[in-house]
């Protein structure tokens, strides 16, 4: 690493490996440095990209390379197989900008995360003793033991991995590299615990469907900081593999200690600043500026969590890390962190709702793949300034509860729900809450039909529910009930003898009683997102735009 925030192209290529990115043209050689990655659409206007690694989406043209060089980019990454490779290479050589090719199966978000991690983990050249970075260490160990190596922290995040050619890896390692975290598996808890209990290297043969691994804990002053794993494929590992891993653990300990302290301090600071914004505590200028947000710009609040409502701070922290990286990859200004055990983001509204929805939904899918469960995100209405974030936070929490609850409507079919789209669900939630202690849900007119069912053995309540759901369409409702339409018409006439079924008000009340009873039953069985988070209360924010 030659400059703070940059790595040489040689380190980049060697660390990520040919399975991620390959070189097409290096006009200034492997010693040229690159900085932060930036995802850039080929049809977007160029801005200043001083030293950046430009990840060019879409089908690139030769003019892109000239424009990128003029904007100050150090290197451009295109999708392998897209565009005229020869013309692009010639243009890159003429422009003096490096040209790399990303593997076809690697998403731009994944490549961004890999480069971002490399920039964070590569050790400065001024490190005492000339210590190598973790990626170099992983390659050195892999060469000596004869198997692919990964270095992880205690949250099973993959910090670095080896890229030695010819060393096989399995799907577990591949997914861990691309997702920056080892995928969930029922055997992991015990396997990792066994590694952390031992002073030396131990073998792990679980999960059985993957290759066996030799693993060792990384410690500093008896405190566990992470683990190192070496895969054994067709050929046995070197006879001194355990000793090599022990030596590597000693070399990795200062790195992991520094990273752990820096990451914990950075997260703590981010979460404190974010908590101040969400609660409206004090002046907003300083915390807003710390996240790169302007105090007077419109923002939206995003609240994310697992649909089952499981409280897991580690999962929320990992989700926040992934969301932060994803938003940064698409240049969406955002303050992301964990407050009261839930993942929140205050996002610049200028990013555009479709982009925000897409990036958030894609990231939630990755979170679910890595952590399990069904992750959802509620998005509050755009508020006029950062000072109004508390109102946006209440709306985001309400949208999340509606999205995870039983009153989901057609707009709540996906992973991300906007507050303005969930008006019907929010109304039903409020109505159910207000009637919880009264007899309105169990009283007339529905109670008259239910009492007849109980006394006569009929099933009129179910028939009513299906008929109302079919918008009074008898043939469609009869088909759902597996009845002849005339049979259903006869039932409806009999119900009409109990209650005035032709009265539109009676039909409205019946529909509400039936639907709210379903919502309450689902909530009682644990199907709703529990109330938590910064706003805490049940009172909904105003439905007017701006969260007033």
TrEMBL record:
Domain PucR C-terminal helix-turn-helix: start-end pairs: 461-516
Chain spans, region Disordered: 524-548
Entries under InterPro entries matching the protein: CdaR-like_regulators, CdaR_GGDEF, PucR_C-HTH_dom, PucR_C-HTH_sf
Entry coiled-coil feature ranges: none
Source domain of life: Bacteria
Gene3D superfamilies: PucR C-terminal helix-turn-helix domain
Ranges of residues in domain CdaR GGDEF-like: 284-402
UniProt family annotation: Belongs to the CdaR family.
Protein name as annotated: Helix-turn-helix domain-containing protein
């Amino acid at each position: 690493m030659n400059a703070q925030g940059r790595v040489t192209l040689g380190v980049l290529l060697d660390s990520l490996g040919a399975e991620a990115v390959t070189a097409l043209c290096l006009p200034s050689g492997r010693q040229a440095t690159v900085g932060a990655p930036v995802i850039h659409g080929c049809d977007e206007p160029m801005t200043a990209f001083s030293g950046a690694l430009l990840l060019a989406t879409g089908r690139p043209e030769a003019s892109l390379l000239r424009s990128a060089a003029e904007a100050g980019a150090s290197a451009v990454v295109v999708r392998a197989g897209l565009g005229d490779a020869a013309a692009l290479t010639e243009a890159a050589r003429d422009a003096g900008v490096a040209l790399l090719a990303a593997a076809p199966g690697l998403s731009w978000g994944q490549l961004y995360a890999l480069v971002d991690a490399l920039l964070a983990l590569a050790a400065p050249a001024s490190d005492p003793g000339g210590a190598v970075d973790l990626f170099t260490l992983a390659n050195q160990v892999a060469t000596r033991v004869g198997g692919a190596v990964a270095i992880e922290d205690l949250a099973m995040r993959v910090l670095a991995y080896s890229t030695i050619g010819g060393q096989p890896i399995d799907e577990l390692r591949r997914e861990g590299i691309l997702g920056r975290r080892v995928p969930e598996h029922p055997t992991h808890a015990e396997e990792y615990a066994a590694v952390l209990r031992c002073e030396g290297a131990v073998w792990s043969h679980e999960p059985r469907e993957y290759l066996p691994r030799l693993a060792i804990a990384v410690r500093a002053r008896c405190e566990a900081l992470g683990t190192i794993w070496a895969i054994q494929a067709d050929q046995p590992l070197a006879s001194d593999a355990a000793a090599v891993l022990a030596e590597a653990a000693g070399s990795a300990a200062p790195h992991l200690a520094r990273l752990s302290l820096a990451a914990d301090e950075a997260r703590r600071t981010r979460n404190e600043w974010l908590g101040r914004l969400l609660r409206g505590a004090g002046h907003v200028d300083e915390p807003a500026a710390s996240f790169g947000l302007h105090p007077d710009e419109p923002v939206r609040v995003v609240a994310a969590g697992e649909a089952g409502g499981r409280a897991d701070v580690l999962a929320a922290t990992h989700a926040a890390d992934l969301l932060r990286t994803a938003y940064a990859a698409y240049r969406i200004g955002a303050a992301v962190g964990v407050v009261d055990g839930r993942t929140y983001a205050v996002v610049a509204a200028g990013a555009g709702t479709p982009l925000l929805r897409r990036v958030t939904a894609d990231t939630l899918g990755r979170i679910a793949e890595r952590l399990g469960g069904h992750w959802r995100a509620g998005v509050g209405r755009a508020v006029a300034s950062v000072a109004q974030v508390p109102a946006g936070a209440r709306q985001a929490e309400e949208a999340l509860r509606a999205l995870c609850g039983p009153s989901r409507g057609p707009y709540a079919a996906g992973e991300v729900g906007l507050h303005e789209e969930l008006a019907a669900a929010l109304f039903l939630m409020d109505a159910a809450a207000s009637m919880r202690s009264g007899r309105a849900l169990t009283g007339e007119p529905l109670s008259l039909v239910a009492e007849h069912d109980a006394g006569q053995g009929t099933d009129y309540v179910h028939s009513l529910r299906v008929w109302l759901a079919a918008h009074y369409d008898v043939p469609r409702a009869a088909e759902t009930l597996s009845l002849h339409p005339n049979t259903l018409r006869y039932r409806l006439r009999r119900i009409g003898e109990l209650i005035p079924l032709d009265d539109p008000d009676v039909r409205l009340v019946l529909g509400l009683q039936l639907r709210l009873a379903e919502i309450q039953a689902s909530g009682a069985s644990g199907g709703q997102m529990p109330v938590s988070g910064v706003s805490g209360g049940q009172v909904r924010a105003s439905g007017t735009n701006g969260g007033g």
